């Protein structure tokens, strides 16, 4: 009978050690995974509060000098309009020089529409809100993102 109690105690000790070891491994894994999901860049939050209607959506593109008005954006976003306003956040953006283009895609066809002579049919705006007659220019729209988050307001 003494032998049996000793075996039971030994099994309980092994089970306890096993549980502690398992919990330690799990805790270590969660800690490692938590740090690996750490923020890799800054956020840029864009607000547009003068959208002319709640019809359609607003398309935004984050560009650098090589993509501005030439190719797809580095990051793209689409926002539903509520109370003639949108807010979009670009995440994990590395510090550097960028510009943002925004278009009110009223008919939700995924692009800006133009009149036959080339004038835009839909509202648009770019970062820094420059007044220009003609296509947006990168040098007027560019801004620098440092090592802190940034809030921008774009006007249509």
Describe this protein's structure.
There is one protein chain. By secondary structure, the protein is α+β, with helices and mostly antiparallel strands. It folds into 2 domains: 1-38; 42-153, Immunoglobulin-like (Sandwich), CATH 2.60.40. It is 25% helix and 31% strand. The chain has helices spanning 2-36, 138-141; strands at 42-48, 57-63, 75-80, 86-93, 96-105, 124-126, 143-145, 150-153. The radius of gyration is 27 Å and the shape is globular.
SSE blueprint and pairings:
Layout: H1 2-36, E1 42-48, E2 57-63, E3 75-80, E4 86-93, E5 96-105, E6 124-126, H2 138-141, E7 143-145, E8 150-153
Features:
156 residues; 8 strands; globular; 5-stranded antiparallel β-sheet; 25% helix; 2 domains; 3-stranded mixed β-sheet; 31% strand; single chain; Immunoglobulin-like; alpha+beta
Provide the structure class: alpha+beta
Rg on CA atoms, Å: 27 Å
CATH secondary-structure class of the largest domain: Mainly Beta
Can you tell me the CATH architecture of the largest domain? Sandwich
Q: Name the shape in a single word.
A: globular
End-to-end gap? 87 Å
Individual helix count: 2
The helical percent reads 25-40%
The number of distinct β-strands equals 8
Residue ranges: pLDDT <50 for 5 or more in a row?
none
Number of separate structural domains: 2
Beta-strand fraction estimate: 25-35%
């Amino acid at each position: 009978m003494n032998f049996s109690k000793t075996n039971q105690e030994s099994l309980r000790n092994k089970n306890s050690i096993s549980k502690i070891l398992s919990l330690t491994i799990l805790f270590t894994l969660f800690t490692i995974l938590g740090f690996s999901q750490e923020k890799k860049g800054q956020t840029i939050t864009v607000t547009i509060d003068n959208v002319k209607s709640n019809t359609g959506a607003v398309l935004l593109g984050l560009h650098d000098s090589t993509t501005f008005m030439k190719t797809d954006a580095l990051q793209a976003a689409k926002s539903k309009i509520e109370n003639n306003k949108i807010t979009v956040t670009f995440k994990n953006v590395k510090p550097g020089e960028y510009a943002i283009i925004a278009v009110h895609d009223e008919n939700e066809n995924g692009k800006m529409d133009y009149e036959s002579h080339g004038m835009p049919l839909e509202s648009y705006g770019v970062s820094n809100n420059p007044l220009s007659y003609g296509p947006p220019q990168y040098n007027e729209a560019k801004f620098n993102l440092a090592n802190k988050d940034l809030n921008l307001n774009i006007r249509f």
